[in-house]
Recover the amino acids of this structure.
């Protein structure tokens, strides 16, 4: 039996107390919400916290409610199942509920939380292995070693940002509320939660806890999320594109494109979508005859520099990033995904 | 509840029986079920959340016992495969798995049956796609899945 190493489990009475406990125990402690990312990683020795600060019992983190301006606030402890089946969130922000529904498997989504999904660890074929495998192969810089096995010349870890919901939340203009020690709160854009470093991928302080995700009112924005993976179940994304389009009838007034699983952070490549602004998305554009969507997707995917550290070939993953962008644009514009096959 | 010496006092119900257990803080529900309670019907495959062999129902929803910490199941009602039959009478989902050949070696079966039961409790007439989605996290290395899907359809008919 693959067992967890011993640790102390603490049950704070509130999120504020949880942040205080993190500060008190320093880098020996981590928070655990659903544990669907952390527990397997502790079993494989990828993470070795001596103290776990539990969030699962905090009902204050488990609410979904409307905000004054017509947006929505989703508590960090809301499960992916609850978030993905919330009708109101789904009607306003389909990219978000779709992304949440595409994470892992039903049993994992029943336990895994939206806060844990935003903070989910980066992934790499040289890292997501048992401690015995990593020892035999040679440890890498992300844990216990000092070089990167996939890109030995790299000064930093290139593990892959693999959250499905993060790109959707960014494309939708989402923010998170972070709670630090002493009850100190600040609100940052979801995009500012990340930095392009596979080892230190979160830009927040280690003792800050995500309290909730806020999505603004959708207005004219429509959205979609497209995920590429080997199996249509369980697998993490090998590429993913979240697209939000502000539409005035068939005319695009704004376009946001955010990619996941193509680097160590989600990439906001909305600049590539400028070419769509002012254009109608109805006929030739959608069927790909005029090459518009292919050009936008090629520009968007420029930042994608997949390495040989995930499932399937990295050249194919880059190609599929472009396809995912095209499909997400077609879907966000309210059309059938089948059209994307043509574009 | 944390008690000294790296242990927890865990109160939960397992198969409709209330239990008060002294368990290691770092023992997963899978270990508690198999080792402390001797309920070896819950299988261990990957022990990393990838196969679904360890699926149990926690308050009626399928969850992976290999990843659940004692604190996460405090005060819950857990159903394992041992809790499904009434005496010698198998649950309709179990009967349908037998009738439709929804198993070969049987290792994935406890998890499959429980995930299927949870689906049918909510939706007694699921479509094939809904069945596939509900069982998406349960891997079977033997059957090729066709018999399993037919068994769930059959069980739905028996239950409604
Ligand atoms: C087989 C398998 C497949 C998976 N597939 C996918 C997939 O397709 N897509 C995907 O995105 N994920 C996937 N996951 C990862 C994981 O299940 C999800 O990301 C899940 O949402 C994590 O949530 P959690 O509550 O279980 O997080 P936990 O495991 O509790 O925590 C994850 C990390 O976030 C931190 N954390 C948790 N909550 C907070 C908070 N509120 N504030 C600050 N830090 C916090 C923890 O300290 C930890 O570092 C998969 C996991 C498994 C085992
Ligand atoms: S990218 Fe390099 S340093 Fe990072 S986990 Fe992979 S091998 Fe290790
Ligand atoms: S043993 Fe729990 S999912 Fe495989
Ligand atoms: S019957 Fe053998 S694994 Fe499913």
């Amino acid at each position: 039996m693959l067992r967890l190493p011993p640790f102390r489990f603490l049950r704070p009475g509130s999120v504020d107390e949880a942040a205080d406990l993190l500060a008190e125990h320093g880098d020996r402690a981590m928070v655990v919400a659903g544990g669907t990312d952390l527990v397997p990683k502790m079993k494989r020795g990828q993470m070795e916290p001596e103290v776990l600060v539990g969030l699962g019992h905090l009902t204050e983190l488990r609410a979904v409610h409307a905000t004054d301006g017509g947006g929505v606030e989703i508590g960090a402890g809301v499960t992916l199942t609850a978030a993905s089946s919330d009708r109101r969130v789904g009607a306003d922000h389909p990219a978000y509920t779709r992304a949440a529904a595409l994470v892992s498997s039903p049993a994992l989504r029943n336990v895994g939380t939206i806060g844990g999904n935003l903070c989910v660890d980066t992934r790499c074929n040289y890292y997501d292995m048992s401690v015995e495998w990593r020892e035999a192969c040679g440890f890498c810089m992300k844990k216990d070693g000092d070089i990167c096995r996939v890109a030995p010349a790299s000064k930093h870890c290139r593990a892959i940002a693999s959250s499905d919901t993060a790109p959707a939340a960014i494309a939708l203009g989402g923010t998170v509320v972070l709670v630090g020690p002493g009850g100190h709160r600040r609100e940052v854009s979801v995009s500012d939660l990340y930095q392009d470093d596979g080892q230190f991928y979160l830009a927040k302080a280690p003792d800050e806890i995500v309290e909730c995700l806020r999505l603004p009112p959708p207005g004219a924005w429509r959205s979609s999320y497209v995920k590429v993976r080997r199996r249509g179940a369980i697998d993490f994304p090998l590429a993913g594109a979240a697209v939000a389009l502000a539409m005035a009838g068939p005319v695009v007034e704004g376009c946001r494109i955010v990619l996941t699983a193509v680097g160590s952070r989600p990439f906001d490549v909305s600049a590539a979508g400028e070419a769509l602004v002012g254009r109608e998305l109805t006929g030739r554009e959608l069927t790909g005859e005029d090459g518009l969507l292919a050009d936008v997707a090629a520009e968007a995917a420029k930042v994608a520099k997949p390495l040989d550290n995930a499932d399937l070939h990295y050249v194919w993953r880059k190609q599929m990033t472009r396809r995912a962008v095209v499909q997400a644009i077609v879907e966000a514009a309210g059309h059938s995904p089948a059209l994307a096959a043509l574009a | 509840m944390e008690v000294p010496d790296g242990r927890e006092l865990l109160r939960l119900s397992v198969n409709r029986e209330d239990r008060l257990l002294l368990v290691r803080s770092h023992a997963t529900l899978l270990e508690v079920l198999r080792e402390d309670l001797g309920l070896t019907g819950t299988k261990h495959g990957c022990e990393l959340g990838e196969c679904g062999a360890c699926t149990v129902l926690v308050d009626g929803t399928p969850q992976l016992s290999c990843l659940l910490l004692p604190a996460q199941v405090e005060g819950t009602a857990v159903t394992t495969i041992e809790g499904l039959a009434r005496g010698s009478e198998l649950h309709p989902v179990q009967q349908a798995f037998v009738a439709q050949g929804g198993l070969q070696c049987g290792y994935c079966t406890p998890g499959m049956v429980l995930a299927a039961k949870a689906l049918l409790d909510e939706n007694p007439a699921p479509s094939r796609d809904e069945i596939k989605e509900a069982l998406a996290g349960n891997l079977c290395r033997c059957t090729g899945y066709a018999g399993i899907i037919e068994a769930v359809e059959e069980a739905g008919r028996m239950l409604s």
User: Anything to note?
Assistant: The helical segments of chain B are 29-36, 70-73, 92-100, 109-122, 128-134, 146-159. Chain B is about 35% helix and 20% strand.
